User: Fold this.
Amino acid sequence: MIAGLPGILAIDGGNSKTDVALVASDGSLLATARGPGNHDADVADEWVEMLAGLVAEVQRQAGAHGHPVARHISACVANVDLPEEQDRTAAALLARGWSATAAVVNDTFAVLRAGLDGSAAAGGAHWGVGVTCGAGINCVGVDPAGRTTGYLAFGMITGDWGGGSGLGYAALWWAVRAEDGRGPHTALREAVAAHFGVPAVRDVALGIHQGKIGERELLELAPVLLAAARDGDEVARDLVRRQAEEICVMAVVVMRRLGLTTRPTPVVLGGGLMTARDPLLLSEITERFAAAAPQASVTVVAIPPVAGAALLGLDYVGAAPEAERRLRAAYHGRAGS
Assistant:
């Protein structure tokens, strides 16, 4: 092992962005970089090549060069759920020579670990339930013995609903129906058209059909829907309630599988829709957990998922507790600056 080699190369490959952090074994945050997200279970060569640029950037910031980059790679990647997908991703990362070891899990585990600072988990054990609600939606759970459970989370084909994509499609669906008379009036009709700068909602649908508007641009409608709900639009409010219900159901079912419903359990919420801290959505979520799992302790993650990936890496290399405190302090300092 090369003396002075950083402890962890942490990777958070979300749907919308990829964050990389280089972290020393004592928890010091050495460097960070950001690039585009990962959209496929089969990690594309283009994404790995983009990732190589981010790795080079964090090395440059840290004043390092060459290979290996760190003692261990801790990668939490969206859409990488199955063991064979995790193995393929780990192999692709190891092939770059960045480290001798690599652990790859779904990015929701990064959200969960980021939210478990030892104060919420009995005895400092890193267990609980994590829900990601960003571009998509997913949920995982870890019990005190280390058993894990979750969902396939492939979208509609596996029973998932929500996240920015789900809310965006729903907002357009109801707006179109309001405009053509098949549905009730909703402020989403005017709001959706205004967001895209077109006269009518049909122009949005036509733009998607003709390839002038990308379907991923519908993610931008989630904040539009939340604003309409806060202003009292009932169609939008019903969609917010449905999102809250989906989040609660996913988490509670995971708790049941792991036998956690009768004990105090940390539930960590992450992803863009959660970290935006919309008051209506959070109040609806809190209300449902109070009824379905009153002993759950629900929090919104306060540090980015890449920090959770780094913490998983520090766990892997057996870093001292002070390393976690140092890393968290670095990220909290960034948030406050």
The first strand starts at residue 8 and ends at 13. Residues 234-257 form the longest helix (24 residues). Strands lie at 8-13, 17-23, 29-36, 72-77, 101-106, 128-133, 137-142, 148-150, 265-270, 296-300. Residues 119-123 have pLDDT under 50 and may be disordered.
